[in-house]
Write a structure and sequence with these properties.
alpha+beta, Aminopeptidase
Length: about 170
């Protein structure tokens, strides 16, 4: 049985009811740097995205799950992207939407559930993530979950008039 349930949170598929939650995230300019977003998204485009969210990871090469508490309140999103079945790897992204819900272990629990799912059910050999050098919370989260910093990409992202470095982290399933 596939279990995406933890002690305090669970991971679930996107639902049409998530429209306002995703709209708020995708249009929050304060996190555009994390998601490499350049422009706002309309409700119409997000609705279309949700209508196709049921497609298989092998077809669309990504999987987005909602991080939810047991009161069924959406707390954030966790993604597998650039899913590469041949080379058995995928990128990971995670976001807890509201600052009040950060530093409470929800991201830690969600990441651990996704790691277990990726290795045991998807048969992946490795996961990787890209983290801004300034994002100390994410560096700590991924390092705590066994990811190793394998590189530093100099002047990788142009953000608000200056270039920023980005770390590359990797977790290999041995």
């Amino acid at each position: 049985m596939i279990t995406l349930k933890g002690e305090h949170i669970f991971l679930r598929a996107l639902e049409p009811e998530d429209l306002d939650f995703i709209y708020a995230i995708e249009n929050d300019e304060s996190i555009w740097e994390i998601s490499n977003t350049q422009t706002p998204y309309s409700r119409y485009l997000i609705k279309q995205y949700l209508e196709h969210a049921h497609k298989d990871i092998y077809e669309v090469k990504q999987l987005r799950l909602v991080i939810s508490n047991y009161k069924n309140r959406a707390l954030g999103l966790i993604d597998l992207f650039d899913f590469d079945f041949k080379n058995k790897r995928a990128g990971v992204g995670i976001l807890i939407k509201d600052k009040i819900n950060r530093d409470k272990g929800y991201g830690q629990e969600a990441l651990q559930l996704l790691i277990n799912y990726s290795f045991s059910h998807l048969g992946l050999h490795q996961l990787y993530c890209n983290i801004s050098e300034e994002n100390k919370a994410s560096v700590k989260l991924f390092a705590h979950n066994g990811f190793t910093q394998i590189g530093l990409k100099k002047d990788w992202n142009y953000v608000k008039g200056s270039f920023k470095n980005e770390y590359l982290f990797q977790l290999i399933n041995n």
